[in-house]
Specification:
This protein is mostly helical and about 400 residues long. The longest helix is centred in the last third of the chain and has 42 residues. The protein is globular and about 60 Å long. It starts with 12 loop residues before the first helix and ends in a 23-residue tail after the last helix.
Protein backbone atom coordinates (compact mmCIF):
# COMPACT_ATOMS: atom_id res chain seq x y z
CA UNK A 1 0.00 0.00 0.00
CA UNK A 2 2.79 2.43 0.94
CA UNK A 3 6.26 2.65 -0.52
CA UNK A 4 8.82 2.44 2.25
CA UNK A 5 11.97 2.60 0.15
CA UNK A 6 11.93 6.34 -0.36
CA UNK A 7 14.91 8.38 0.81
CA UNK A 8 14.63 9.94 4.23
CA UNK A 9 13.79 13.61 4.41
CA UNK A 10 16.71 15.36 6.12
CA UNK A 11 16.10 17.14 9.40
CA UNK A 12 16.04 20.89 9.02
CA UNK A 13 16.24 23.64 11.57
CA UNK A 14 12.74 24.71 10.59
CA UNK A 15 11.37 21.21 11.08
CA UNK A 16 13.03 20.88 14.48
CA UNK A 17 11.70 24.28 15.46
CA UNK A 18 8.19 23.30 14.31
CA UNK A 19 8.18 20.23 16.52
CA UNK A 20 9.59 22.12 19.51
CA UNK A 21 7.11 24.99 19.23
CA UNK A 22 4.65 25.52 22.09
CA UNK A 23 1.57 23.34 21.97
CA UNK A 24 -1.55 24.92 20.48
CA UNK A 25 -3.81 24.18 23.44
CA UNK A 26 -6.74 25.92 21.78
CA UNK A 27 -6.53 23.44 18.92
CA UNK A 28 -7.27 20.63 21.38
CA UNK A 29 -10.34 22.55 22.53
CA UNK A 30 -11.43 23.17 18.94
CA UNK A 31 -11.17 19.49 18.11
CA UNK A 32 -13.29 18.57 21.10
CA UNK A 33 -15.91 21.19 20.21
CA UNK A 34 -16.15 19.70 16.70
CA UNK A 35 -16.73 16.22 18.14
CA UNK A 36 -19.23 17.50 20.71
CA UNK A 37 -21.11 19.27 17.93
CA UNK A 38 -21.38 16.03 15.96
CA UNK A 39 -22.67 14.24 19.08
CA UNK A 40 -25.39 16.87 19.58
CA UNK A 41 -26.35 16.71 15.91
CA UNK A 42 -26.74 12.94 16.02
CA UNK A 43 -28.71 12.94 19.28
CA UNK A 44 -30.99 15.97 18.73
CA UNK A 45 -31.43 16.55 15.00
CA UNK A 46 -30.42 13.66 12.75
CA UNK A 47 -33.17 11.20 11.94
CA UNK A 48 -33.43 8.16 14.20
CA UNK A 49 -36.18 6.14 15.86
CA UNK A 50 -34.71 6.02 19.34
CA UNK A 51 -36.76 8.88 20.83
CA UNK A 52 -40.05 7.41 19.65
CA UNK A 53 -40.43 10.52 17.49
CA UNK A 54 -38.24 12.57 15.17
CA UNK A 55 -35.38 14.11 17.20
CA UNK A 56 -36.23 17.46 15.65
CA UNK A 57 -39.72 17.22 17.13
CA UNK A 58 -38.32 16.24 20.54
CA UNK A 59 -35.81 19.14 20.49
CA UNK A 60 -37.31 21.70 18.09
CA UNK A 61 -35.19 24.59 19.35
CA UNK A 62 -31.88 22.83 19.95
CA UNK A 63 -32.22 20.68 16.86
CA UNK A 64 -32.68 23.71 14.64
CA UNK A 65 -29.23 24.87 15.77
CA UNK A 66 -27.46 21.53 16.18
CA UNK A 67 -28.18 20.49 12.60
CA UNK A 68 -25.44 22.91 11.54
CA UNK A 69 -23.00 20.99 13.74
CA UNK A 70 -23.12 18.34 11.03
CA UNK A 71 -20.20 20.31 9.58
CA UNK A 72 -17.98 18.98 12.38
CA UNK A 73 -16.19 16.57 9.99
CA UNK A 74 -15.32 19.44 7.65
CA UNK A 75 -13.73 21.25 10.59
CA UNK A 76 -11.85 18.04 11.44
CA UNK A 77 -10.47 17.96 7.90
CA UNK A 78 -9.12 21.52 8.11
CA UNK A 79 -7.51 20.72 11.47
CA UNK A 80 -6.08 17.52 10.02
CA UNK A 81 -4.47 19.37 7.12
CA UNK A 82 -2.82 21.74 9.61
CA UNK A 83 -1.69 19.12 12.13
CA UNK A 84 -0.53 16.38 9.76
CA UNK A 85 1.62 18.79 7.77
CA UNK A 86 3.08 20.12 11.03
CA UNK A 87 4.01 16.62 12.20
CA UNK A 88 5.20 15.37 8.78
CA UNK A 89 7.48 18.28 7.86
CA UNK A 90 11.11 17.18 8.17
CA UNK A 91 10.16 13.55 8.84
CA UNK A 92 10.65 10.50 6.67
CA UNK A 93 8.19 7.95 5.35
CA UNK A 94 8.60 5.28 8.07
CA UNK A 95 7.96 7.83 10.79
CA UNK A 96 4.84 9.24 9.11
CA UNK A 97 3.41 5.80 8.28
CA UNK A 98 4.03 4.48 11.80
CA UNK A 99 2.59 7.55 13.53
CA UNK A 100 -0.57 7.60 11.41
CA UNK A 101 -1.28 3.86 11.65
CA UNK A 102 -0.68 3.85 15.41
CA UNK A 103 -2.88 6.93 15.77
CA UNK A 104 -5.83 5.65 13.72
CA UNK A 105 -6.12 1.94 14.24
CA UNK A 106 -5.98 0.93 17.96
CA UNK A 107 -8.92 3.09 19.01
CA UNK A 108 -10.77 2.27 15.81
CA UNK A 109 -10.43 -1.48 16.32
CA UNK A 110 -11.82 -1.22 19.85
CA UNK A 111 -14.70 0.96 18.67
CA UNK A 112 -15.59 -1.41 15.82
CA UNK A 113 -15.58 -4.41 18.14
CA UNK A 114 -17.60 -2.64 20.83
CA UNK A 115 -20.21 -1.32 18.40
CA UNK A 116 -20.41 -4.66 16.59
CA UNK A 117 -21.05 -6.48 19.89
CA UNK A 118 -23.79 -3.95 20.65
CA UNK A 119 -25.50 -4.33 17.27
CA UNK A 120 -25.06 -8.08 16.86
CA UNK A 121 -26.07 -9.27 20.33
CA UNK A 122 -27.13 -6.53 22.78
CA UNK A 123 -29.29 -4.31 20.56
CA UNK A 124 -29.82 -6.00 17.19
CA UNK A 125 -32.71 -3.65 16.49
CA UNK A 126 -30.29 -0.73 16.32
CA UNK A 127 -28.90 -1.78 12.94
CA UNK A 128 -28.87 -5.01 11.00
CA UNK A 129 -25.22 -5.89 10.45
CA UNK A 130 -23.38 -9.16 9.86
CA UNK A 131 -20.22 -10.61 11.36
CA UNK A 132 -18.60 -10.44 7.92
CA UNK A 133 -19.33 -6.72 7.68
CA UNK A 134 -17.84 -6.21 11.13
CA UNK A 135 -14.67 -8.08 10.18
CA UNK A 136 -14.23 -6.12 6.96
CA UNK A 137 -14.75 -2.89 8.90
CA UNK A 138 -11.69 -3.74 11.00
CA UNK A 139 -9.53 -3.00 7.94
CA UNK A 140 -10.93 0.56 7.64
CA UNK A 141 -11.10 -0.20 3.90
CA UNK A 142 -14.77 -1.19 3.78
CA UNK A 143 -15.60 1.59 1.32
CA UNK A 144 -13.01 0.18 -1.06
CA UNK A 145 -14.79 -3.19 -0.93
CA UNK A 146 -18.26 -1.59 -1.07
CA UNK A 147 -19.14 -2.96 2.37
CA UNK A 148 -21.37 -0.91 4.70
CA UNK A 149 -19.91 0.94 7.67
CA UNK A 150 -20.80 -0.66 10.99
CA UNK A 151 -21.16 2.92 12.26
CA UNK A 152 -21.92 5.69 9.80
CA UNK A 153 -19.31 8.03 11.31
CA UNK A 154 -16.54 5.83 9.89
CA UNK A 155 -16.95 7.48 6.48
CA UNK A 156 -14.64 10.28 7.60
CA UNK A 157 -11.83 7.83 8.38
CA UNK A 158 -11.81 6.66 4.77
CA UNK A 159 -11.37 10.29 3.74
CA UNK A 160 -8.59 10.79 6.30
CA UNK A 161 -6.84 7.61 5.22
CA UNK A 162 -6.70 8.78 1.61
CA UNK A 163 -5.30 12.13 2.72
CA UNK A 164 -2.59 10.34 4.69
CA UNK A 165 -1.60 8.42 1.57
CA UNK A 166 -1.24 11.69 -0.33
CA UNK A 167 0.84 13.11 2.50
CA UNK A 168 3.08 10.04 2.54
CA UNK A 169 3.65 10.49 -1.20
CA UNK A 170 4.48 14.14 -0.57
CA UNK A 171 6.93 13.20 2.21
CA UNK A 172 8.57 10.68 -0.11
CA UNK A 173 8.97 13.40 -2.73
CA UNK A 174 10.29 15.87 -0.17
CA UNK A 175 8.31 18.68 1.45
CA UNK A 176 9.32 22.23 0.60
CA UNK A 177 7.37 25.46 0.76
CA UNK A 178 7.33 25.86 -3.02
CA UNK A 179 6.10 22.31 -3.61
CA UNK A 180 3.37 22.72 -0.99
CA UNK A 181 2.09 25.91 -2.58
CA UNK A 182 1.85 24.21 -5.97
CA UNK A 183 0.27 21.16 -4.38
CA UNK A 184 -2.39 23.22 -2.58
CA UNK A 185 -3.10 25.10 -5.81
CA UNK A 186 -3.32 22.20 -8.27
CA UNK A 187 -4.72 19.34 -6.17
CA UNK A 188 -8.08 20.89 -5.15
CA UNK A 189 -8.59 22.36 -8.62
CA UNK A 190 -7.95 18.97 -10.22
CA UNK A 191 -10.41 17.37 -7.79
CA UNK A 192 -12.99 20.02 -8.66
CA UNK A 193 -12.54 19.48 -12.40
CA UNK A 194 -13.11 15.75 -11.93
CA UNK A 195 -16.24 16.49 -9.88
CA UNK A 196 -17.64 18.97 -12.39
CA UNK A 197 -16.96 16.77 -15.42
CA UNK A 198 -18.02 13.54 -13.76
CA UNK A 199 -14.61 11.91 -14.14
CA UNK A 200 -13.74 8.32 -13.20
CA UNK A 201 -14.64 7.34 -9.65
CA UNK A 202 -11.13 6.03 -9.06
CA UNK A 203 -9.63 9.41 -9.86
CA UNK A 204 -12.15 11.22 -7.67
CA UNK A 205 -11.35 8.79 -4.84
CA UNK A 206 -7.61 9.42 -5.09
CA UNK A 207 -8.10 13.19 -5.21
CA UNK A 208 -10.53 13.17 -2.24
CA UNK A 209 -13.28 14.68 -4.45
CA UNK A 210 -15.10 17.50 -2.62
CA UNK A 211 -13.03 17.30 0.57
CA UNK A 212 -9.67 18.31 -0.92
CA UNK A 213 -10.13 22.07 -0.22
CA UNK A 214 -10.45 21.51 3.53
CA UNK A 215 -7.17 19.64 3.86
CA UNK A 216 -5.39 22.02 1.50
CA UNK A 217 -6.77 24.98 3.47
CA UNK A 218 -5.45 23.50 6.72
CA UNK A 219 -2.02 23.01 5.15
CA UNK A 220 -1.97 26.61 3.94
CA UNK A 221 -2.89 27.83 7.41
CA UNK A 222 0.08 25.89 8.77
CA UNK A 223 2.33 27.56 6.21
CA UNK A 224 1.05 30.96 7.34
CA UNK A 225 1.65 30.00 10.96
CA UNK A 226 5.12 28.62 10.24
CA UNK A 227 6.50 31.22 7.82
CA UNK A 228 4.38 34.30 8.47
CA UNK A 229 1.89 36.16 6.30
CA UNK A 230 2.45 36.18 2.54
CA UNK A 231 0.26 36.86 -0.46
CA UNK A 232 0.48 33.43 -2.15
CA UNK A 233 -0.82 31.26 0.72
CA UNK A 234 -3.60 33.75 1.50
CA UNK A 235 -4.76 33.78 -2.14
CA UNK A 236 -4.66 30.00 -2.31
CA UNK A 237 -6.56 29.79 0.97
CA UNK A 238 -9.27 32.03 -0.51
CA UNK A 239 -9.42 29.73 -3.55
CA UNK A 240 -9.90 26.67 -1.36
CA UNK A 241 -12.57 28.37 0.75
CA UNK A 242 -14.42 29.24 -2.47
CA UNK A 243 -14.22 25.63 -3.67
CA UNK A 244 -15.47 24.39 -0.29
CA UNK A 245 -18.44 26.75 -0.51
CA UNK A 246 -19.17 25.64 -4.07
CA UNK A 247 -19.40 22.01 -2.97
CA UNK A 248 -20.60 22.08 0.62
CA UNK A 249 -23.61 24.40 0.60
CA UNK A 250 -25.68 22.49 -2.00
CA UNK A 251 -24.56 19.16 -0.58
CA UNK A 252 -25.52 20.07 2.99
CA UNK A 253 -28.82 21.58 1.82
CA UNK A 254 -29.69 18.20 0.34
CA UNK A 255 -28.30 16.08 3.21
CA UNK A 256 -29.84 18.06 6.07
CA UNK A 257 -33.23 18.28 4.33
CA UNK A 258 -33.18 14.50 3.91
CA UNK A 259 -31.85 13.65 7.38
CA UNK A 260 -33.68 16.15 9.61
CA UNK A 261 -37.14 17.70 9.89
CA UNK A 262 -35.66 21.14 9.32
CA UNK A 263 -34.96 23.21 6.22
CA UNK A 264 -31.43 24.59 6.51
CA UNK A 265 -30.56 28.17 5.61
CA UNK A 266 -27.98 28.29 2.80
CA UNK A 267 -26.49 31.51 4.16
CA UNK A 268 -25.91 29.91 7.55
CA UNK A 269 -24.38 26.89 5.84
CA UNK A 270 -22.07 29.20 3.92
CA UNK A 271 -21.01 31.00 7.10
CA UNK A 272 -20.46 27.67 8.86
CA UNK A 273 -18.31 26.43 5.97
CA UNK A 274 -16.15 29.55 6.06
CA UNK A 275 -16.13 29.19 9.84
CA UNK A 276 -14.32 25.84 9.57
CA UNK A 277 -11.32 27.68 8.11
CA UNK A 278 -11.75 30.80 10.25
CA UNK A 279 -11.76 28.80 13.49
CA UNK A 280 -8.39 27.20 12.71
CA UNK A 281 -7.02 30.57 11.59
CA UNK A 282 -8.17 32.09 14.87
CA UNK A 283 -6.42 29.40 16.88
CA UNK A 284 -3.19 29.42 14.86
CA UNK A 285 -2.71 32.99 13.68
CA UNK A 286 -3.95 35.20 16.53
CA UNK A 287 -3.17 35.65 20.20
CA UNK A 288 -5.38 32.66 20.93
CA UNK A 289 -2.33 30.52 20.06
CA UNK A 290 -0.70 31.72 23.29
CA UNK A 291 -3.38 30.23 25.55
CA UNK A 292 -1.84 27.83 28.06
CA UNK A 293 -4.96 26.10 29.36
CA UNK A 294 -3.61 22.64 30.10
CA UNK A 295 -7.11 21.32 30.87
CA UNK A 296 -7.79 21.43 27.13
CA UNK A 297 -5.26 18.64 26.49
CA UNK A 298 -7.39 15.79 27.92
CA UNK A 299 -10.38 17.12 25.99
CA UNK A 300 -8.34 16.91 22.80
CA UNK A 301 -7.29 13.37 23.70
CA UNK A 302 -10.95 12.34 24.10
CA UNK A 303 -11.96 13.75 20.71
CA UNK A 304 -11.18 10.77 18.48
CA UNK A 305 -12.56 8.11 20.89
CA UNK A 306 -15.72 10.16 21.46
CA UNK A 307 -16.29 10.52 17.73
CA UNK A 308 -15.78 6.78 17.15
CA UNK A 309 -17.96 5.42 19.94
CA UNK A 310 -20.81 7.87 20.56
CA UNK A 311 -23.42 7.22 17.91
CA UNK A 312 -24.92 3.78 18.40
CA UNK A 313 -24.06 3.46 22.10
CA UNK A 314 -25.67 6.84 22.68
CA UNK A 315 -28.71 5.88 20.64
CA UNK A 316 -28.99 2.63 22.60
CA UNK A 317 -29.02 4.57 25.88
CA UNK A 318 -31.69 6.91 24.53
CA UNK A 319 -33.83 4.00 23.35
CA UNK A 320 -33.69 2.40 26.81
CA UNK A 321 -34.38 5.58 28.80
CA UNK A 322 -36.59 7.76 26.58
CA UNK A 323 -39.90 6.07 27.55
CA UNK A 324 -39.16 6.50 31.26
CA UNK A 325 -37.44 9.85 31.83
CA UNK A 326 -37.37 13.52 30.90
CA UNK A 327 -35.83 14.21 27.50
CA UNK A 328 -33.06 16.41 28.95
CA UNK A 329 -32.15 13.78 31.52
CA UNK A 330 -32.02 11.16 28.77
CA UNK A 331 -29.87 13.40 26.58
CA UNK A 332 -27.46 14.04 29.46
CA UNK A 333 -27.28 10.30 30.21
CA UNK A 334 -26.52 9.46 26.57
CA UNK A 335 -23.77 12.08 26.41
CA UNK A 336 -22.41 10.89 29.76
CA UNK A 337 -22.26 7.29 28.54
CA UNK A 338 -20.52 8.35 25.34
CA UNK A 339 -17.92 10.31 27.33
CA UNK A 340 -17.35 7.41 29.73
CA UNK A 341 -16.85 4.96 26.86
CA UNK A 342 -14.56 7.43 25.10
CA UNK A 343 -12.46 7.76 28.27
CA UNK A 344 -12.16 3.98 28.57
CA UNK A 345 -11.27 3.65 24.89
CA UNK A 346 -8.59 6.31 25.30
CA UNK A 347 -7.05 4.52 28.29
CA UNK A 348 -6.49 1.45 26.11
CA UNK A 349 -5.43 3.48 23.07
CA UNK A 350 -2.70 5.42 24.90
CA UNK A 351 -1.13 2.17 26.10
CA UNK A 352 -1.28 0.37 22.76
CA UNK A 353 -0.47 3.25 20.40
CA UNK A 354 3.12 4.19 21.39
CA UNK A 355 4.59 0.64 21.32
CA UNK A 356 2.71 -0.04 18.09
CA UNK A 357 4.21 3.09 16.54
CA UNK A 358 7.73 2.14 17.61
CA UNK A 359 7.31 -1.40 16.30
CA UNK A 360 6.01 -0.28 12.90
CA UNK A 361 8.70 2.38 12.59
CA UNK A 362 11.46 -0.11 13.40
CA UNK A 363 10.04 -2.68 10.99
CA UNK A 364 9.83 -0.20 8.13
CA UNK A 365 13.39 0.95 8.76
CA UNK A 366 14.60 -2.64 8.59
CA UNK A 367 12.93 -2.94 5.21
CA UNK A 368 14.66 0.23 4.06
CA UNK A 369 18.10 -0.96 5.14
CA UNK A 370 20.11 -2.11 2.11
CA UNK A 371 21.13 -5.74 2.06
CA UNK A 372 24.90 -6.07 2.43
CA UNK A 373 26.38 -8.52 -0.10
CA UNK A 374 29.61 -10.10 1.16
CA UNK A 375 32.57 -9.12 -0.98
CA UNK A 376 33.98 -12.01 -2.95
CA UNK A 377 37.64 -12.55 -2.25
CA UNK A 378 39.93 -13.92 -4.94
CA UNK A 379 42.83 -15.99 -3.68
CA UNK A 380 46.20 -14.65 -4.66
CA UNK A 381 48.10 -17.09 -6.90
CA UNK A 382 51.90 -16.76 -7.09
CA UNK A 383 53.25 -15.75 -10.49
CA UNK A 384 54.00 -18.70 -12.69
CA UNK A 385 51.71 -21.04 -10.78
CA UNK A 386 48.50 -22.18 -12.46
CA UNK A 387 45.61 -22.80 -10.11
CA UNK A 388 43.31 -25.69 -10.65
CA UNK A 389 40.51 -27.36 -8.77
CA UNK A 390 41.53 -29.79 -6.12
CA UNK A 391 41.12 -33.38 -7.12
Amino acid sequence: MVTVLSPAVPESAAATSARSRPRLYALDGLRFLAAAGVVLYHFTARWSQVWGDEPGHVFPGLGHVSMYFSLGPELFFVISGFVILMTAWGRDVPHVVASRVARLYPGYWIAVIATSVLLLWIWPGGKDITVTEALVNLTMLQSLFEVRHVDGVYWTLWVELRFYLLMIALVAWGITRRRLLWFCALWPVAAQVVLELGGPNAVATVLLDKYAPYFAGGMLLYLLDRDGHAKAPWLLLALNVALALRNNVPWQMHALTANTVFTPNPWVLGLATVGCFAAVALVALTRVQHLRWSWLVPLGALTYPLYLIHEYWGWWAIAQLAPHANRWVVLAAAIGLALALAWGLYQVEKRVGPPMRRSIDAGLRRLRRPVEVPERRTALVPRGVTSRPAA
